[in-house]
Amino acid sequence: MKEFIENLKKCFSKKTLPQKFEYCFLSPQKTFFSKKLKLEIKKEKDKNHLKLIFPENFKTQIPLIFCFGVFKKEGNLLVFPEIVLKKNSSLKILSFCLFPQAKKVFHQMKGKVVLEKNAELIFEEKHFHGNFSGSSLEIFYEFFCQENSKLISNFSLNQGTSGKMNLSYKISQLSNSFSENEIKVLANHPNDQVEIEEKIFLLEKKSKALLKLRGVAKNKASIKLTGEIEAKAPFCFGHLDCKEIICDPDSQAISIPKLKVFHPLASLTHEASIGKINPDQIALLQAKGLSEKEAIEFILKGFLK
Predict the structure, then answer these.
(1) CB-side neighbour CA atoms (13 Å) of 259
(2) DSSP-derived 3-state class of residue 59
(3) pLDDT in tens, 270-283
(4) What is the dihedral angle through the alpha carbons of 238, 241, 242, 244, rounded to the nearest 10 degrees?
(5) Partners of residue 203 on adjacent β-strands
(6) Cβ-contact 133, 99 below 8 angstroms
(7) Strand stretches in the chain, DSSP E
(8) Phi, psi values for residue 283, rounded to 5°
(9) How many CA atoms lie within 13 A of 283 on its CB side?
């Protein structure tokens, strides 16, 4: 949390603000955006609708940063973003969701992202839900990747508690598109119940996808990871890598890999495993001076990093 705040201070300093957020900067008080960028913000009761359209050939090295959060113990946060990257555009999005004191917080996020021909997007989403397992989340993202587009997505919740969380991604890909997707979640409390489902549809020739799922269940928590890839055209390729660690007999970890091939020239592969931490790794770290508890935490942090 401290590192996150320090990074934000650097990004929003007075010296760098005009330069870094020339094209788009959103805050509760003000909104800045260039004439080239189409931006729509609508609020309907407790629902927040956000639509961003990036023009053709739009390129920048500066990431677009979103911060969503509820800092009280109770509250609702409903966000419905729609993002469109026109042809030949490229962008990096960093999204932070923070519920540090959550005891009864509901967060719903339903997003739609369109990558037009030759567009590239890096999408990173990081969560912190506090230590009370008091959050309830429903997150659904739908991605449409057109010809020759590239999507890199990364979702992580690797500290604190997760609460009740239902996370679903759906990715549809056209010819020669590529996606690399990673989800890492820690379930760390008796009330933590996590269900993650990601589906990738390789609809046209030479589309490729990599899907990596990581989950940890400890302290009587439960986590369920479902990864699915469908290949419907020639020369499509996909790989699913799903691994979970279960830390105690009262926790639950479920892994469901699904591969569906509808064309003889398509190829899909997968690897899936659920197990405990290798005791040899713990012994090695203890030999270097760590306690057993410290060694376990060190291994789990590396697994979810």
Answers:
(1) 19
(2) strand
(3) 999 998 888 888 88
(4) -170
(5) none
(6) no
(7) 24-26, 31-33, 38-44, 47-54, 64-69, 74-85, 90-98, 104-115, 120-128, 135-145, 150-157, 164-173, 178-187, 193-202, 208-217, 222-231, 237-246, 252-261, 267-275
(8) -60, -40
(9) 3
Q: Kindly report the number of other CB atoms within 10 A of residue 285's CB atom.
A: 18
Backbone angles phi, psi at 188, to 5 degrees: -135, 25
Q: How far apart are CA 237 and CA 239, in angstroms?
A: 7
What are the tokens at 272?
Answer: 């899936």
pLDDT for position 5:
52
pTM flag (> 0.85): yes
- Tokens coding 257: 């890999």
Residue 262 buriedness (CB in 10 A; 0-12 / 13-18 / 19+): exposed
